[in-house]
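hiii so my PI (J.) wants the whole complex modelled not just the main chain, which honestly fair. so below is everything: two entries, each one labled with what it is. i double checked the lines twice but i was tired so who knows lol
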Amino acid sequence: MRKNNHSMLVKAFFGITFVVLSLLLMSISISAQQLKIGVSQIVAHPALDACRDGFVFGMEQAGYIPGVDVSYDFQDAQGEFSNAISIAQKFKDDQVDMIVAISTPIAQAAAQVTSEIPIIIGAITDPVAANIAESWESSGNNITGMSDAAPNKTQLELIPSFLPKATRVGTIYNAAEANSVVQVELSREVCQELGLELVEVTASNSAEVLMAAQSLVGRIDAFYIVTDNVAVSAFSSIVKVSLDEKIPIIVADPTFVPEGALTSFGIDYFTLGQKSAEKAVQILQGKLPSEIPIGKLEQPEDLTFMINVDVANRLNLHILNELLDEADSIVFAGTIWNRSE
Amino acid sequence: MTWSLLFHALEQGLVFGIMALGVYITFQVLNFPDLSVDGTFPLGAAITAKIIFAGGDPFIAILWAVVGGILAGGLTAFFHTRLKFTNLLSGILTMTLLYSINLRIMGKSNIPLLGKITILNVIKGWFPQLSLDQLTPILFLVVVLLVKLLLDYFLCTEIGMAIRATGDNEQMIRSLGVDTGVTKIIGLCLSNGLVALSGSLFAQYSGFADVGMGIGTIVAGLASVIIGRSIVRNRGGIGWMTVSVIIGSIIYRTTVMIALRYGYRLGFQPGDLKLISVLLVIIALTFPLFRGRIKAIVTTNGSNGVENK
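here's the output for the full assembly
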């Protein structure tokens, strides 16, 4: 009786092992047909999320349907640089076909970990300064993608056309973010050329932005907000001060125009993600990453010129018709109207 | 500095004052360095933003935020009293896991609340003759005073006394038959409930909730407690202590505002903000010391006159 029981257990064990093994084999054969792409970002953040979603959308447009042709492994380092390395190591261990690195520290970590797996960068301001590419034309390694360098000059030039009387511009940024410091330094030069004074204040986390914005009241005629992670995380706080004190906001990232900025002439992170996907498709078609130059959104046709008429009305501002004619999209009566429509 | 700026500093001092009272309960009363605060402040904001964004009642949102804070405090207490982790580790674990929880609650990293119905809009509706600028400091003052009085009362009840005794001399109070595990649980729940309330109000006041908004909360809270205590000093009862914490918080926020506003005139760079606020805090902290010196100088100079009498 006991022996019988034992042999049944053995049989059951072999049966289960067989099922598990066959399941494993099946899953391997499925994943062999599917592309595996590891997508990593430094932190969950509206702009970076838009870049990620834009990438997935761009791939889908090129015929790579998620779950059918390609499986994504989305990772978020939750703001910790040490996690960025661990994620890159995981991707390498999983033998993903491609890594999408959104934000500079993620790209640096991925470049550190692998020199074989192609890395598509998204939302990296200056890949050459970040030491992950030899030049914009050719990285000389396994990296290509898109930069999110904001056209600060074009944006600051909006101020005289929208606000001819403005002389002082205030900006809020986190002094610990290298990208922001570069943009603010550039803005300072551009402001001088334009005869404007740039008043700078800093905030080291999103809860401090409100007070920073309040401290600028009376000292400035307009806000200019660069693509700073801390400042845009608390964008609502800046809008609150803007509407209360009738100080218009010019913002580098057009995503924030519907949220209460007056205008932006900048990069749409969703478009940026889509353009990154185009680079990824070129690699999948057989090109080497070093053969594909790292792109920038500089051409006016790639940039989004957006005006928020609702905000202009609330601030009692009159916007010239020529500007409205040039705009790619306009926020009016709570709705976004695109030129193409 | 204009009056409106001082009022903004006051408003934020009051809102963060509730958080500082929470920190006071753990650090001072319970003698428990609780770092969960960096997670429970955004937790309160996250719960509130989620409910208000979905069109929920702001009062209900505040209530749930406080419940969330209490549960998070309970978790820290559980780690410490039941799993026997050290107090620092317990707080760090809760703080860290709350980052993910907050992301889960919000479903994204940031929820804007502009144009949504917050407690400020609702109360504005009750007093149409007052502007929002007038109403906000009054409302926050009322809330803070209410919290303060309830806390004063609670700390003088039997349980409150037991919590204070746990912080003063755990061995002694245990020998009297009090379960210090229970007093720690109550203290931590209460503290984190207050911190979440503060986060909830701040989210509605500043118009957003963000996962990153909790970083450094504990530093501001501790600074407020210490500044307040050194300025008001030991004047006796619990009532004075809690007032001093709130005053400390207002002073802390005012120093930040001064640093933001006038730092550049003194040739500081924008990145020097933290340095300037620390310098101002040092001045605030050493002020009573100088006051003592000045008094000493005045009395020694005047003492001749006294002796002649």
